[in-house]
Design goal:
The chain has 114 residues and is an alpha+beta fold. The chain has helices at 6-11, 60-75, and strands at 19-22, 26-30, 38-44, 83-85, 101-105. It is globular, with a radius of gyration of 14 Å. Bound molecules: adenosine monophosphate and zinc ion.
């Protein structure tokens, strides 16, 4: 793998993924281990390790991710609602250290955390 980061490698095409959306700022693909009928990972195209690495300089990528989420949610038929999750750091359960948002839906989700 040329890229140390799994999601950078996916975006470079070094590892296959099932793309659902792409623009200048954002790449989105299906999670390999879905927890719901729709489970898409929405990833900024620059390597930001986690939400703790956000700054005034790079935080526009978060807005771009959410603009993409609105488009993907409609395309996936999630007008009835969905959940967006960001795991941050070890205690937050983050396993891939490249900022990403889980877009989860396609079923009635529980009232609790996930
Ligand atoms: P997190 O635990 O929040 O860091 O989320 C990482 C997510 O990446 C998990 O839900 C994994 O199932 C997912 N994942 C790991 N490897 C791949 C891959 N090659 N393609 C798609 N999703 C992946
Ligand atoms: Zn990366």
């Amino acid at each position: 793998m040329l890229n140390d980061c799994l999601f950078c490698a996916i975006m470079a095409g070094e590892i296959p993924s099932t793309k659902v959306y792409e623009d200048e700022y954002v790449y989105a693909f299906r999670d390999i281990n879905p927890v719901a009928p729709v489970h898409v990972l929405v990833v900024p195209k620059v390597h930001i390790p986690s939400a703790l690495a956000l700054t005034e300089q790079n935080s526009m990528y978060v807005a771009k991710c959410f603009e993409a989420i609105e488009k993907i949610a409609r395309a996936e038929g999630l007008e009835g609602g969905f959940r967006v999750i960001n795991n941050c750091g070890e205690d937050g359960g983050q396993s891939v250290m490249h900022l990403h948002f889980h877009l989860i839906g396609g079923t009635k989700l529980g009232e609790k955390l996930i």
